[in-house]
Amino acid sequence: MLAAGGGVIVDVDGNSLIDLGSGIAVVSVGNAAESVVSRVQEQVAAFTHTCFMVTPYDGYVDVCEALAELTPGDHAKKSALFNSGAEAVENAVKIARVATGRDAVVVFDHAYHGRTNLTMAMTAKNMPYKNGFGPFAGEVYRAPMSYPFRDGLSGVEAAARAIDVIEKQVGAANLACVVIEPIQGEGGFVVPAPGFLPALAVWCAANGVVYVADEIQSGFCRTGDWFASDDEGVVPDLVTTAKGIAGGVPLAGVTGRAELMDAVHVGGLGGTYGGNPVACAAALGAIEEMRTHDLPARAREIGAIMASRLTSLQEEYAVIGDLRGRGAMMAIELCVPRTTDPDPVRAAAVSAYCHQHGVVTLTCGTWGNVFRFLPPLSISDELLHEAFDVVGEAFAATR
Ligand SMILES: *Cc1c(COP(=O)(O)O)cnc(C)c1O
User: Fold this and answer.
1) How confident is the model at residue 355 (pLDDT cuts 50, 70, 90)?
2) Which of 19, 32, 34, 365 has the most neighbouring CB atoms within 10 Å?
3) What is the best residue among 26, 87, 212, 217 to mutate for testing ligand 1's pocket, by most ligand atoms within 8 Å of CB?
4) pLDDT at 168
5) What is the CB < 6 Å shell around ligand 1?
6) Residue among 239, 247, 188 nearest 216 (CA)
7) Of 3.40.190.150, 2.60.40.1120, 1.10.3720.10, 3.40.640.10, which CATH number belongs to 34-292?
8) Does pTM surpass 0.90?
């Protein structure tokens, strides 16, 4: 790749591609966004590293203040910064374990939480994420997810099913935390039925279990709110962030109730590079872009365009079994018509056609049959329509 900007990627041969992936929901503010570039340039010329644990600096504190303000809930919050999403998830589990004095972790079917040893155990899908990489960390238990297209359950029913599994197979008294993506990412953009997340959060609160929202893919304006949890007013005890937080520079965070964060002994959390000054400058630049351009609102507009384009495609092509998502995080699931039998072959064919015709799309899902659309929030309506024209042609050409 040679260059990238507001939704266009130029490759080394000079070909332009429309970007519907944002490097997996990372460059939500656009690639090389102005405020990100200027703040990074300024920071890199001032100092590149001190290690926050040794010599603290303002940028780190400023990012934590922004996280406290933007994440759901108005309780007292604290944050710790890391380098990658997986590292943030690992640290959320560490915090929950110390704070509760319990070991067990509950995750869900189709979950994706990363590729380190603990997060591989938490991730559901074997190939390619886990196969041959075990043995995995213990005390990780999996509960059934709410997946309306496949289970037909209401949110309350699906929550009752999950809670029953947790109570019978784990026991609330052993459980440190429940970790859940409010809209699942790699697992297929599964949006739980309304009521599922609130019911889980209520059960967690009643049982002294830490409710952790993994907002690494769904956070930072992607779904039309600052965080996907906002949609149903769910206030997580801990929130993990990464991907969209810093406009393409590696940064991640755990933000949570001050009393939980403070339960950890001094020196218990950290890392050489966590919250590196250049990454913090990038995050402050990205957050500035999100605020200045009201990117939650823009994500809703993009979502409306995508929903209308995808609805017409679904009417035309029976292979599109489900259309789901929120804001600029939308997906279609391809199945043998009128069944829920996955059709990953058609998904791969449509994806290949799109790429050959200048549109970058991503697939995902446990069966590899889901198309996920994650355009940068800086994309224009024209470019978005142009991209979905190609997606439409791809369905026609692979019929
Ligand atoms: C990408 C992702 C992770 C892992 O983040 P990395 O930065 O790749 O380690 C964890 N959780 C979710 C929901 C993700 O989408």
Assistant:
1) very high
2) 19
3) 217
4) 98
5) 84-86, 89, 112-114, 181, 185, 214, 216-217, 242-243
6) 239
7) 3.40.640.10
8) yes
